[in-house]
């Protein structure tokens, strides 16, 4: 039996995770802006009810687990998400980490080893504490570590986040997932950094790999052991689903079915791309899109149920548990 995975509502045996979406968000907010410049489309109770309806619908479509990668920098509110989790049949996995694709927030820039306020790195304390003790004083423990680099590459601040994530992974065994810049082949530097820090690359997802049209780049990432995140289905404003499907089929034909995970990077509410904008510019960017559109297209292209089970059940389980 695969080891258990922490969720908002308690640990779940790996063998019971079922169909899993490994890269989603319930709510993406900005607490400082929310106080000083409230968004006209945000109504907390309406958003909670919408999240409950959305996640309950996913259960009816066969989904059993959703990983919420909302971390520091994206407005994580564990208590708000816990209210949703308590009311839905799917299990939700929380994440720790820091979404800082170039520069850390001022507190972290000034606090840590050799900095103005010298002492232990608070990033390490945050990540490990979220995993071992619980997030923000709750009993909700994180089951994934989320980090990011973008067009600027591994800046000093980003490198520090990667080091903290590696430290937390080596201490706890919790896997790491990234935001990467596929166009710049950013996953290579991410793998180099994490491998140098001692992280086994088969415990890492190179996120947004599905945005790449470079098959040799994707194969090189997979050949080093990492999972490839085809995790932006429905995000037509950054890439066409037709291209994502074409690259996914090429990888499956090349024998990489055991190295790919599928998801949307969608949110029930995101302040960054609010509902009115999504309705106009990315109407298919929601957590049911795989089941409504993408998986049927894969079946029509000849992908069998065994392979889909590998992508949606087996690979997420291996990622989250470290088991077979």
UniProtKB/TrEMBL annotation:
Sorted keywords for this record are: Hydrolase, Metal-binding
Which InterPro entries would you find in this protein's record? AryldialkylPase_Zn-BS (IPR017947), Metal_Hydrolase (IPR032466), Phosphotriesterase (IPR001559)
Check the record and name the SUPFAM superfamilies matching this protein. Answer: Metallo-dependent hydrolases
Regions that span the bilayer: none
Residue(s) carrying N6-carboxylysine: 146
**PROSITE patterns linked to this entry:** PHOSPHOTRIESTERASE_1, PHOSPHOTRIESTERASE_2
Family indicated by similarity: Belongs to the metallo-dependent hydrolases superfamily. Phosphotriesterase family.
**What protein does this entry describe?**
Phosphotriesterase-related protein
